[in-house]
Amino acid sequence: MAGSEKTFSWHFETDRAALLVIDMQNDFVAEGGVMHVPKAAGIIPKLQELIACCRECGVPVIYTVQAFHPHYNLCPLEVKKFPHLEKEGMREGTWGIEIFPAIKPQEGDIIIKKRRFSAFYNTELELVLRDLKGINHIDTTIISGTVTNICCESTARDAFFRDFKVVFGSDVNAAVDENAHQATLNNIETAFGVVMDADTIMAALRAGGSHRL
User: Fold this and answer.
1) Strand order in 194-196's β-sheet?
2) Which of 94, 121, 90 has its CA nearest to residue 23?
3) Nearest residue to 23 via CA among 107, 119, 106
């Protein structure tokens, strides 16, 4: 899609945005987590700021957790790709699917359980986004979390396919390696949305109104 990078333009409205915090659960973030992403802890301070800003501005905060049923396999191909998941990890009712304590949900936040990489696949996320604010429904998803190039990118693409605008946080997403992280940022900027750092996102939210991106 050569030449598309600078033609992607739309309005970012504070009162029609929602923050998605993808899979910042113990199994990914905490030391000893079965799917530990070492870089995930590094985004916590900036993500804390972004979450606080969203709450301050009335922007809904929606957390997702990857959770398998403890007694049968709901994602057989993922388990084949990551064989250690056959025995442990991301099981309902365990410490591993709890949101990392430093960014734990507060009253009024929403938690979506998902079975696949995308937070939209067979979940209520789309319905929640379209119903939260009635007829003037949310039209912009701010994507944060881990893993940048897997669940976060899958969710961003699915948001775009459903006609939600995508704002992807460059410094509030974490991947296992920097090359994968940068590849996703390039993919989003090229075809699926806009990439902004958290400070820029927060400035836009606090300014309110509508911002051309």
Assistant:
1) 110-114, 61-66, 17-22, 140-146, 165-174, 194-196
2) 90
3) 119
**Rounded Cα–Cα distance for residues 9 and 64 (Å):** 28
Main-chain phi, psi angles of 112, to 5 degrees: -115, 125
Distance linking the first and last C-alpha atoms of the chain: 19
Is 116 strand, coil or helix? coil
Q: DSSP string spanning 153-184? A: HHHHHHHHHTT-EEEEEEEEEE-SSHHHHHHH
Predicted TM-score (pTM) of this structure:
0.89
Tokens of residue 157, six digits: 């693409």
Distance CA 22, CA 154 (A): 11
Amino acid at 39: K
Stronger pLDDT, 11 or 191, i.e. the higher one: 191
Backbone angles phi, psi at 93, to 5 degrees: 85, 5
What are the catalytic residues?
Answer: 23, 114, 151
E strand spans, 23-114: 61-66, 110-114
Per-residue model confidence (pLDDT) at position 211: 61
Cis peptide before 21 (omega within 30 of 0): no
pLDDT tens figures, 58-108: 999 999 999 876 655 656 666 656 656 656 556 778 888 999 999 999 999
How far is 194 from 89, CA to CA, in rounded Å?
Answer: 33
